[in-house]
Sequence to fold (127 residues):
Amino acid sequence: MNLFKTHGAFSWAELMTTDTEAAKGFYGELLGWQFKSMDMPTGQYHVVSIGEEQIAGIMATPPESAGAPPFWGNYVTVDDVDALQDKVPALGGKVLVPPTDIPGVGRFMLFQDPQGAALSVITYASE
Fold:
């Protein structure tokens, strides 16, 4: 079983920061992480690996989040991200980013729970 692809399992972490190079230097030295940079429609994305295992990503804070402090976000795998869009508000939460495609990766949604904590869910593309 691939736990990262299992419904309800945490599967990815992502740092949004104002200085990706400084973050790479800090975490690379502190934790021994390696990085592979790639061009994305939103700019450079830095995939974090331990050995051959990809575990996280680092990206620049997007313009729509300007002024926000750097933060780590988490993704939880779900079988069908679109099926959750109406369920979140029905349970008292708020959809912040509706289901959105990540080319070559899958589809994600960002929401807040009733207490205001934000979490992303993702349905990975079939391999």
In short: The mean pLDDT is 93. Residues 20-31 form the longest helix (12 residues).
